[in-house]
Structure formats: C-alpha cells, structure tokens
Design brief:
The protein has 258 residues and is of the alpha+beta class. It is 39% helix and 20% strand.
C-alpha cells in the first residue's frame, strides 16, 4: 500500500532513504533515517548486508542514556540478521568509500553540531524535506573534516587489474567481486520486497545462475530464504511504502508501520 508524506509523521515506525545531492555524490551513496518502536527491527527489515560503509548516530528514547552513540560500520560480505530491537531514532550515512578517521571519529565539536541539527529537526518537524535537509547538513559537517579528495580518480587510473583490486579494496574495504555480489543482492532484495514477480524471473533478471543460486546467496546474507522474506514482509497490511516523489524527489525508499 502507499502512504502520503503527510501521514507518516504519526506512524509508529518508519524507514526513509534519500539520494545524496550532486555535490556530495562522489563521497556519499545515500542517507537514511529510522524511527522505530521495536517493530521494524524486530522483523529484521532493512538490516541486511550492505556494500557500503556506514556511520550511524543512534538516539535512544531514554534521554537518561545520554548523548547519541556514534557507530561506524565497515562493509562486510555477509551479516547476520539483527536480534536487538531498536527503540529510538537512527540517522545514518552510507559512504562510497571508507571515510578517513576524522569522519569515522569526528571531534566533539562536530558531534555537538550534528546533535543540534538532529534535535532541532525532531522537535520541530518530521516532514520529509526537514529530515532530508538535516541529513544533508550532517554530511556537509562530516565532509568538511576530510582533506582534499585527491584520490577520486585513482581507480580509473589503475595500470593493472591487480592495482585496481588493491586500490578498490583500500577505498571500499572490500574487493570488487564481493562488492558486485552485494550490489546484485540489494537489487534483487528490492524486487522481492516490492513486486510479486516469480522468484525465478527475479533470479534471471539479476544474473544469478538460477533460483537456487539466488536462494543460497539470500540465505547467507539474511538468514532467510527469498520466499520466507517475502512472506514476512507482506504478512501484515501495516507495512506500507512511502513514495511521494513529488514532494521529495530524492526519496529512494520509504517504509512506514501504522
């Protein structure tokens, strides 16, 4: 089902994912916002292997727990579904390359600025554009901590396949082959969750050898078979997709729970 952007602020849980603006796109793959009351995380929705390194700012509903926790997650070929339910808000950034230590461990002054941006957004607005703008400002602060991007064209200038692999891994934290496999998995995951196409057709469209190949890959990365995942995802009408692109053209994916 589809829900409009004006409805999602009152939902129990939501996951929003935005494209990075052009001036951040060389460094940022996308940004995301998760507000959860334990519902989304309980079903391991959205907690799958990613080909990108990510940085998360976690805000618990319990103010007594103190400032948000900063968590850097390097890319991994596989990941087990999470068992920890989330009660609170997570603002996150997925990077196209392993960011420098200044971004992985930003100074207190930068974290204070980011906290101020996020808390202001939470107090005053839960509209799509407000959240997206807060994420853009967060990325701008983090990017200001990086030295000049002198390596942006290193991969294109690689003189051999071996050099290419070495430079790719130094930038991404993962070799080209598993990176491509993760990207293929993520594309198949999107089709499985958002369409009723036969799994055999999805496997063919995403260049798996056959449906069994896709099932093995899917179970390795999520702990579920594609059919199990689709059943869990669609078993409740409370899960709805938010796709109001007219208001927020940069919205890649939005999921809400009533």
């Amino acid at each position: 089902m589809i829900v409009s952007s004006v409805e999602f602020a009152d939902t129990k849980a939501c996951y929003l994912e935005f494209e990075a603006p052009d001036w951040q796109a060389h460094f940022i793959e996308n940004t995301f916002y998760l507000r959860d009351n334990g519902t989304l995380s309980a079903q391991s929705k959205g907690n799958f292997a990613s080909a990108y390194a990510s940085l998360r700012f976690e805000y618990s509903n319990d103010i007594a727990e103190g400032p948000p926790k900063l968590r850097y997650v390097p890319p991994k070929p596989t990941i087990s579904p999470k068992t920890r339910q989330i009660f609170g808000v997570i603002w996150g950034i997925k990077f196209k390359q392993l960011p420098p230590l200044a971004v992985q461990q930003p100074p207190i002054a930068a974290i204070d600025k980011i906290n101020s941006i996020h808390s202001h957004c939470e107090r005053n607005s839960r509209e799509l554009e407000g959240i997206r703008q807060a994420l853009i400002e967060t990325c701008a602060i983090l990017m200001s901590l990086t030295p000049g991007d002198k390596t942006s064209h290193l991969l294109a200038a690689a003189r051999s396949a071996r050099t290419h692999r070495r430079q790719f891994k130094s930038r991404m934290g993962i070799s080209p082959k598993p990176f491509a496999a993760l990207s293929r998995f993520q594309s198949a995951l999107s089709d499985i969750s958002q369409s009723n196409s036969p799994l055999s057709d999805i496997a063919y469209e995403h260049a798996f050898a056959d449906q069994a190949h896709m099932s093995r890959d899917f179970r390795e990365k999520t702990g579920h078979s594609p059919a199990q995942f689709r059943e869990v995802w669609s078993e409740s009408n409370s899960v709805r997709f938010l796709q109001d692109h007219q208001e927020s053209p940069a919205l890649r994916l939005g999921i809400v729970i009533d």
